[in-house]
Amino acid sequence: MNKQYLKTQLIIITLIVLFIATGSCTSHKTVSLESLLKEMTNRDNLTRLPSPWYSLRQFSSYDRKTISPGKPGWFANDDYTQFIGVDSSQGRREFIMFDADGPGAVVRWWMTFAGSGAASGTVRIYIDNNPVPVVQDSITRVLSGHLLAGAPLSSSVAPETNIKMRGHNLYLPLPYSVHCRITYQCDSVKITSDSRKPSIYYNICYRTYEKGTTVRSFTMKELEDAGDLVRKTNEILLEPDITTQGKETETINRSLTIAGSDSAVISIDKNNSAVSRLKLDLSDPDSEYALRSVVLKMSFDGFRTVWVPAGDFFGTAYKRTSSKTWESKADTLHNMESFWLMPFRNNCTISIINYGSQQVKADLTITTRDYRWKDNSMYFGASWHEYHHIKTAGSQLTGGTGEHRDINFVDINGEGVYAGDAVAVYNTVEAWWGEGDEKIYTDGESFPSSIGTGTEDYYGYAWCRPELFSHPFIAQPSGSGNFHAGLTINMRYRDLDAIPFRSSIRSDIELWHWLPAVINYALTAYWYVKPPFYINIKPDPGAVALPLPSEKGI
Fold first, then answer.
1. N or C, which terminus of the chain has less Cβ within 10 Å?
2. Position 509 pLDDT exceeds 90
3. Distance (Å, rounded) from C-alpha 337 to C-alpha 200?
4. What is the pTM of this model?
């Protein structure tokens, strides 16, 4: 055996080892506008850990006095007209909202405005350090004016709200290989040591892919070439109940009568399958009470991952409302439907538990389909709890203490993906309850990688408006509690902006109410997770059996 042969073999072995090592942490899949649009409407994607892996972060106009938990400024509320910096290199004043190295992609972009000239500026998107922007136009045309995509990928909410008080949303993905910078040129902006005018709010979610991921950067030419796919994506997002991938294998129909303090259990034994649709019609002498006192409990392959009141699970809380989103649908005729894909290897158990005192009638339809279980597959989960009769601090400007607090959606230890959440808030006073910013920490962060500008901003609308809206990824089926005593329901379902985590996630939101009050604040979180895992939120039968609030108070 000669030395040249040995040398050649050594080189081959070294290359194989390097290939295996590299292949274990990166994917050869090219990320592009086309691939991201297809990912958006493929329900299988949320059920699997991302490949290629990415982290999800957010740039926003949050108050920069917010520095550290427990320190002054943690609940600071001047969440507007805050920028990363100013770029004057081209002879104009461009305020920098977004600046990130690739490989990555912008996946959710929200803004709103107030004050003279706030929305009259020009937005520019620079890709891969090219001094010529790939997009340059008025901000509302880019976000919600259908310059880049039609609705719902580009839209403002609520439709009944004055256009000047809407939240403007863009869900069209903008991938970049090397770098992306987004600026806003607005000549009306005046920033001093004690004033920031006019009011410009923004939240921009983005993915940063692991090193070595190949990304084809966004261009207007590629957008033009993808025109049919963009239109098809919009159509699919608006009709969630006809987009099930895979072959539907079974539909189970059960008409159940469940006495108070009793339950019904349906078990499905089937290999490599998934619940693709879940439909429930509840009727009861007090149907709204049943929406809260009847609980859905689900286990997959022996792992109990769902315990949520029926109304909260389907996005209607304890009020008969109408909405249609990518993940849920409800109407005032008692029909509620879920489109979450819930995979399992061998067995699924769905229980309907009546924690109320009266008999309940439940018509349940479960549809399953084939599912290919892989090493990166995960179980669907949903958790719920209510801060019952919680005291708000109120602002010091309106007689309160200003000692606000963070409240928790869920803490998860393990590996998975955070897929969305919803709130059902019963307000008891004549003031806005939702100044609070979301604060989401992944994998042990000391400062949240997602921090926003207000609750209504997080849920895609603006200025605490009560008008109703439905959108594939955000909805407000009830807004009666936004300025007055009443119930507000807000939902946000994550798709391309889902948040993966390697070891843990903590999802909080500030309880920031303008007035001192006693309110009810229920939080539902949706997620996917791999065993082993730990969830801090536990079933709370006592809470779901409590009397519902009324106009007379809680």
1. N
2. yes
3. 37
4. 0.94
